[in-house]
Amino acid sequence: MDNNYNNYNDNDNNTTHNEQEYYAAGTPYMQQEPPKKKRKLQGFPKTMVKVVAGALVFGLVSSGVFIGVVKLAGGEVSNTGTVVMYKDGSVENNVKQLSSATDVPSIVDASMPSIVAITNTSEQEVPSFFFGNQSQQVQSAGSGIIIGENDTYLYIVTNNHVVEGTVELKVTFSDNETVSATVKGTDSGKDLAVVTVKKSDLKDSTKKAIKIATMGDSKELKVGEEVIAIGNALGYGQSVTTGVVSALNRNVNVENVSTNAIQTSAAINPGNSGGALLNSKGEVIGINSAKMVSEDTEGIGYAIPISDAQPIVEALISREKVADGEKGALGIYPQDISEDIASVYNLPVGVYIQDLVPGGAAAKAGLVQGDIITAIDSFEVKTTADLQSQLQYYKAGTEVEVTVQVKDGGKYKEKKVKVTLQKNSSMN
User: Fold this and answer.
1) Which end of the chain is less enclosed by CB atoms within 10 A, N or C?
2) For 23-37, b where at least 16 C-beta lie within 10 A, e where not — what string?
3) Is 161 an active-site residue?
């Protein structure tokens, strides 16, 4: 992870906090101290803070944690009528509707079987004293929530940053049974991923022990409402913290991922990414994802409202990847516009079209050199990797809606263009 500044914007007081430091790898208990500074004697002091997501990384890597925010779906999802998701605490998922907001043990007992621990082995470039950067396999720990099933699979929602760069993925259930898992789909722009586990890989005892999570309605949340966070903190297995809803609709921007989050005083720690934030009924009303850390802050964690992400999860579950020989392509030569480049040159973040394939899909649709792609259909695109990840779900000949930023009199304006994808080639 680089040392770029990452901003958390508090719209209530128009104060911007810049992130400059991260947890050191391999020392999850220790926090690097920010530089000492003089306090202003009036107004609100500007503090050096860290907005840190809850994915714990093991191993000698320069980035101790991943950064991000995620949305988790609620409600009912249908994948050709086979995926079952429950919303009402019915008999099928055995989650009680608890009447007491203080009955934490009962809530945890009812909800823990729907929370999983995730271990991701990924390839990362790490610095070497003698040989420069080298590729190394690194393990990271996160959490997930069982949200649905069909005859073949269990569906688990987590953060994209928990499963990013997966070489091998493992899921551990509440009975400590560990099985292999597969990434079904991701939306890096929303830091969201769906993971599947084959039900045939599960022991009968595990099938009986686990449950589908009950989804709540985050739109009904009130400030001061009691909440419970469950997740794989520090990679040790599931643990529980409690708190309240501190604020709603907090605008959080971390590593190019922006969302209106639930702020909570329930402790969110490395390994908690992808875990559940529950209300007093045991319903999942958010997904734990990030925390603010500084010498001046305490008890500021963030979770993404469930109700915001349902369409994304529905799409990730229902989409199927296309065979390599059938994939569609835009026919462009791309270049990433990162946050750093965007801030220096006053450009939108996205994929810059350096050039077009003559007669290709993008050229035929009227896209031109200099346009900046920011979305394919409803999925955000901020990097070439995002673009490639989305195009793997479309066959050649499919029409997609491409959102681009077009230069207009020294400024950029958004434009949506229908593009019929061409046969895949070495181009995007």
Assistant:
1) N
2) bebeebeebeebeee
3) yes
Burial track 303-323 (b if 16+ CB lie within 10 A, e otherwise): bbbbbbbbebbbbbbebeebe
Residue whose tokens read 């061409």: 422
Tally Cβ neighbours within 10 Å of residue 12: 10
CA distance 423 to 361: 9
Q: How far apart are CA 329 and CA 421, in angstroms?
A: 5
Catalytic residue among 17, 111, 191, 308: 191
Say if strands 301-305 and 284-293 run parallel, antiparallel, or are unpaired. antiparallel
User: Of 293, 420, 314, 419, which Cα lies nearest the Cα of 74?
Assistant: 314
pTM of the model: 0.71
CA proximity to 53, closest of 250, 193, 252, 295: 252
From the candidates 273, 280, 289, 294, give the one annotated as an active-site residue: 273
What is the distance between the alpha carbons of residues 2 and 33, in angstroms, rounded to a whole number? 18
Residue type at 236?
Y
Q: How many helices (H) and strands (E) does the chain have?
A: 7, 26
Residues 6+ apart with CB under 8 A from 418: 365, 399, 400, 401, 402
Helices (H), 134-255: 160-163, 204-209
Encoding tokens for residue 371?
A: 């346009």
Residue 273 known to be catalytic: yes
| 267 phi, psi to nearest 5 deg | -65, 130
Under DSSP, the state recorded for 360 is S
- Token pair, residue 219, equals 């739109």
Q: How high is the mean pLDDT in each 10-residue block of the chain (428 residues)? A: 37 38 26 37 36 56 28 31 40 41 84 94 75 77 93 92 88 95 86 92 95 92 93 87 92 74 88 90 89 75 84 85 89 91 90 94 94 91 88 92 91 94 72
The active-site residue out of 140, 143, 161, 294 is: 161
